[in-house]
Amino acid sequence: MENIFTHEYFMKKAYQEALIAFDKGEIPVGAVVVANNAILAKTHNLTELLTDVTAHAEMQAITAAAGSLGGKYLTGCTIYITLEPCQMCAGALYWSQISRVVYGAHDTHRGYTAIGGKLHPKTEVITGIMEEECSALMKDFFKRRR
Fold first, then answer.
1. Which residues fall within 8 angstroms of residue 59, CB to CB, at 6 or more apart?
2. What is the spatial distance between Cα 40 and Cα 49, in angstroms, rounded to a whole number?
3. Which of 5, 30, 65, 118 is most buried, most CB within 10 Å of its CB?
4. Alpha-carbon torsion angle 73, 17, 85, 74, nearest 10
5. Residue 123 burial by CB count (10 A; 0-12/13-18/19+): exposed, middle or buried?
6. What Å distances lie between residue 22 and 36, 106, 108, 112, CA to CA?
7. 87 forms bridges with which residues in the sheet?
8. Of residues 26, 58, 84, 133, which has the active-site annotation?
9. What does the pLDDT look like over 68-122, one tens digit per residue?
10. Buried b / exposed e across 14-27, counting CB within 10 Å, b at 16+?
């Protein structure tokens, strides 16, 4: 039997969250936290709605997943994000000790790798899952705002 729970499967869930953010006028970033093929948290950017610069999709997902697990560490979990995390989110992911970060589009200006950020040394990073779709959504969002 084929395993439907692939990186693409969960990135599509994160992408659906990014579309919700897009429709709300938020920067379209979605995030999903998964453990044992079960979604613990799914969310999107809420910075405009909450008027909070820290309300990035990753931050929301970390908090929700930790609440779901009843602890602050996300070992054994994977986060799927439509855009490379910023330095702030990379720091939070570092402290959460999340096991895997999977993201779609690279952020060459504000992404954690562009500014020398780090994740936990034991965190596996996978990039480029649905990169074209995630990148196109971001470009479309900013094109419409101009």
1. 88, 89, 92
2. 23
3. 30
4. 10
5. buried
6. 29, 18, 20, 22
7. none
8. 58
9. 999 999 999 999 999 999 999 999 999 999 999 999 999 999 999 998 889 999 9
10. bbebbeebbeeebb
| Three-class SS state of 107 | coil
Provide the whole-model pTM. 0.96
Count other C-beta atoms under 10 Å from residue 139's C-beta.
11
CA distance 69 to 106: 29
Q: Which residue has 């402290």 as its token pair? A: 95
DSSP string over 20-63: HHHHHTS---EEEEEETTEEEEEEE--HHHHT-TT--HHHHHHH
